[in-house]
Amino acid sequence: MEFAVGSKVIYPSHGTAEVVGRSVRKIDGVDVKYLELVVAAGDESWRGGAMTLAVPEDRAVELGVREAISREEVDDVMAVLAVTNVRVPTNWSRRFKNHQEKLKSGDIYECAEVVRNLALRDRQSSLSSAEKAMQVRARRILVSELACALPGCPPLETVVAFWTGTDKRHHFKIFKPVAEVVADDLPPAWLKEALAVPEGGDCECC
After folding, report:
1. Cα 27–29–31 angle (5° rounding)?
2. Which of 28, 48, 93, 129 sits between 20 and 30 A of 188, alpha carbons compared?
3. Residue 16's CB: how many other CB atoms inside 10 A?
């Protein structure tokens, strides 16, 4: 399978990535071709700190790099999320390890199972801090691939935050680099006042 520069792929445990180039590195005297990937999903992606990865091109598929699911498969993923009658290990360590393996597989259906299982458990009893972190990560991976199955598959996102009242904070994502965000991308007029930064003030959201 060939991955074109500029195309979007899925990298296990990280979600959507963009192929930004190719490079050649000499390993033990042998020239090895690498795919240069930028992971679009991540805690720092909207701040411009996305992770860059180099993957041996002839081993990319073996390492789990693949195309995103098709638009038609999105409904199948949603069906996995909708299942409520599931059984997961009651033992914390077994459950955590089981979910870790599912995320490492790079399979979106197994990632959806992790999101679903942790959401259901969160309703029944509180999650540990480790499971909460895993839940956030699994959601991020899942959403990044679902977005890639839809037109556009944006490699970058801008997060806009605003406050209503004195302490109620809101935020939303615009799937464009910040330099390309225009007024029409912002919420309706009744929210724009909340988004405005006073003259001379500092924007704390980005």
Report:
1. 60
2. 48
3. 27
Residue 10 has phi, psi (to 5 degrees) of -110, 130
Q: What is the pLDDT along the chain (206 residues), one digit of tens a residue?
A: 788 888 888 888 888 888 889 999 998 999 999 999 988 645 444 344 567 889 999 999 999 999 888 888 888 999 999 998 888 888 889 999 999 999 999 899 999 999 999 998 888 888 889 999 999 889 988 988 888 776 555 545 666 666 655 566 666 666 666 667 777 776 654 344 444 444 444 444 43
How many domains does the chain divide into?
3
The span from the CA of 194 to the CA of 162, in Å, is 6
Q: Establish if 52 belongs to a structural domain.
A: yes
Task: Give the CATH number of the domain where residue 26 resides.
Answer: 2.40.10
Overall pTM > 0.85: no
Q: What letter would DSSP give residue 146?
A: H
In a domain, 203, yes or no: no
CATH number of the domain within which 76 lies: 1.20.58.1290
Q: Is residue 75 part of a domain?
A: yes
Range of the domain at 111: 71-148
- DSSP 8-state secondary structure symbol assigned to residue 26: E
Q: How many residues appear in the chain?
A: 206
